[in-house]
Design a protein that fits this description.
Length: 662
């Protein structure tokens, strides 16, 4: 029986092709995400079958590594039957990723995908530090021409920063810049510095031991213990969060994670030779109204045009899961940090996104330029509010706060003129007396200019404001010029047709009710027939199973008997003095038990030698009894030359008899 391993069986029996690829990795950190390798391949024929097997010397690491298959064509079917991917989403190549969670796959069938191909990656979070590791990836395929192309990755980069609580729960918002088309994998991890609980328990235990001690501790020792710093450790922050990737402010992909999150593949496109995306036109009062429902609206310009890419990656806490994420100066949000690890095929630069802050500062500067002194007034208004809040709580105010409260508040242009002593501002129609304080409060304030939807970067805010900027009513024209009024005859005719249709349906329902009992009996009979078929199939299955178990037991007995007969035959052959009859019996039984061919052949050779030696021994005994010196001399020489197995006593007696004859 020839035993073949899996690769040999696939090559020799199934006529497949095996190709092996060696990968050498450097040092890998404990409990850190690592992208171990990445290969591209492009099947050009239908029904290309592949099986991937990952091997390494440390078998324990298999539980901490996994393979993933990436379809670069990103078909719309992966997002639903009615979903349509935008151009930027398709170019990211991240909508169709299959996680295998194995280091040895079953047979996978690939189809050509518009010459875009596939990628296979291996990633892992290893349980201990590794100083270099050798991996081997074997691909078994039915296409001899199919090859894997190694994607060389640059040195991994790690970006880290502290989380600052924010009302929207934004962990970070970074811009991503690439020079060439870059394939990247990213891992985001949240961590927090925590006091080790064991240290607290040890301190409590130490206090108990001090109380039991005979000598009380000295005051200096107590001060040293109280002044000792607590022990901290970095732990993963188990909170839900999401990561969004934008391109030109368009949401491309969204990922969800808890404590950590992995983006296994994302294709960042180069801006080489691409134009900037034009700004959308703002609607004004003079613009034409949108076309009515049913009119032909122009298609969106540039929907299939690739513009220069401006990538932004943003991570946000799930405030529904953790409302405390927005609290400042809270123990829950203290000492939280985030890590962003990037594994890419080319250099990637990540810069903090400050576009929103820059636009807000530009807007404030424009307000200050249009109304000088506005910033100072806003600052004083804030101080006044805090001072009044402090006063309402009964707290003591500082001199500066008291001065701000006592200061006359200026509102709008009218009060501004009054504060400057303009005589016209103090007069009014019918004003003979001075204006009362109540009338001062009723002076109309200057209208405030609010920002438009284009001033916001948050997509939700932008859509919300844009909704209120749009027209409130949608006008639909209804042209009834061709409508006509039905006459009495047509009304009666339609009524008769309706009544006839109702009668027909009543007949149908009546027939269905009459046939319900017949259908119920048919169902019962069919159910009984089906049960009989199932019971018969079950009995047949039980019978076949019993027969199979009986054959299995017979085979087990055969295997056991074969091993026993083989051992018995070897024991007989290993005896110092072998009986020919015993060897013949053991050999016959071994043949019946189908002992392996080599053992049988050795026993047969041994038996043949024994029979031949026995014949020579009998001839020697006859020659000795007849005192035939020549024959005795020939037989003794033959025995010694051929190393035949002869009874030592018979051989010695023959030699002694020959010596006496001489």
């Amino acid at each position: 029986i020839d035993i073949l391993n899996h690769t040999q069986y696939c090559i020799e029996e199934q006529k497949l092709h095996s190709k092996k690829y060696e990968i050498q990795q450097g040092n890998l950190q404990k409990e850190k995400y690592s992208l171990l390798f990445k290969f591209d391949f492009n099947p050009t024929e239908q029904d290309t079958e592949c099986q991937f097997i990952l091997r390494t010397a440390d078998k324990y690491l298999y539980n901490f590594m996994r393979l993933k298959i990436i379809d670069k064509s990103c078909p719309d079917d992966d997002l639903g039957a009615n979903s349509q991917l935008s151009l930027n989403q398709k170019l990211s190549e991240s909508s169709s990723i299959t996680t295998l969670n194995l280091c040895r796959t079953e047979k996978i069938t690939f189809q050509p995908n518009e010459d875009k191909g596939y990628s296979i990656i291996c990633e892992g979070i290893l349980p201990y530090d590794i100083f270099g590791i050798d991996l081997e990836l074997e691909m078994i395929t039915n296409r001899e021409e199919l090859e894997l192309e190694r994607i060389e990755m640059v040195e991994p980069l790690l970006y880290s920063d502290e989380y600052v609580p924010y009302k929207y729960g934004i962990i970070f918002k970074e811009k991503i810049y690439v020079g060439q088309h870059t394939s990247a994998a990213m891992n985001i991890a949240l961590k927090q510095k925590c006091i080790v609980e064991e240290e607290v328990e040890n301190k409590a235990q130490a206090d108990i031991e001090i109380e039991k001690a005979e000598d009380p501790p000295k005051e200096e020792d107590k001060q040293d213990e109280e002044g000792a710093e607590p022990i901290f450790e970095i732990r993963e922050l188990k909170k839900n969060f999401k990561v969004e990737i934008f391109d030109n402010e368009e949401l491309i992909q969204t990922y969800q994670g808890n404590g950590h999150l992995t983006i296994s593949h994302f294709n960042f496109r180069s801006n080489s030779g691409l134009e900037e995306k034009p700004e959308p036109k703002k609607e004004s009062e003079g613009d034409e109204a949108p076309p009515a429902d049913g009119a032909d609206a122009p298609e969106e310009a540039g929907s299939n045009t690739e513009y220069a890419h401006h990538y932004v990656i943003q991570a946000t806490f799930d405030k529904n899961d953790w409302p405390g994420a927005v609290l400042k100066n809270s123990p829950e949000t203290k000492d939280i940090e985030w890590d962003l690890s990037v594994f890419s095929s080319d250099t990637v630069a990540i810069v903090k996104d400050t576009d929103k802050e820059d636009r807000e500062q530009a807007l404030k500067d424009s307000w200050e330029e249009a109304e000088p002194g506005r910033a100072e007034k806003s600052k004083k208004s804030r101080i006044r509010y805090l001072a009044e809040l402090k006063k309402s709580k009964g707290e003591e105010l500082t001199e500066e706060e008291q001065e701000v409260i006592n200061e006359t508040r200026i509102r709008g242009a009218a009060n501004l003129g009054e504060a400057q002593g303009d005589p016209k501002a103090a007069k009014g129609k019918g004003d003979k007396k001075g204006a009362t304080p109540e009338e001062d409060e009723k002076v109309e304030e200057v209208p405030q200019a609010f920002p438009t939807s284009s001033d916001y970067t948050n997509l939700h805010f932008r859509d919300f404001i844009h909704h209120f900027e749009s027209d409130r009513l949608i006008h639909i024209k209804c042209n009834k010029s061709g409508a006509r009024l039905r006459d009495e005859a047509e009304i009666l005719e339609r009524k008769a047709l309706k009544e006839k249709e109702v009668e027909q349906w009543e007949k149908v329902f009546s027939t269905r009710m009459e046939n319900r009992e017949i259908e119920a009996k048919d169902r019962e009979e069919k159910q009984k027939q089906l049960q009989d078929i199932i019971m018969k199939s079950r009995d047949d299955f039980i019978t076949k199973t019993e027969e199979l178990f009986a054959k299995r037991n017979e085979y087990r007995e055969l295997i056991s008997n074969r091993k026993y007969k083989e051992v018995l035959l070897n024991d007989v052959m290993g005896l110092e003095k072998i009986e020919i009859a015993a060897l013949e019996t053991a050999l016959s039984e071994a043949k019946e038990a189908l002992v392996n061919k080599e053992t049988i052949e050795n026993a047969e050779k041994k038996l043949e030698v024994l029979k031949y030696s026995k014949g020579v021994e009998e001839e020697l005994q006859a020659a000795t009894s007849e005192k035939d010196a020549d024959k005795m001399r020939q037989l003794i020489a033959k025995i010694e030359e051929e190393n035949l197995i002869v009874e030592p006593k018979i051989l010695n007696d023959s030699k002694n008899a020959l010596a006496k004859i001489k």
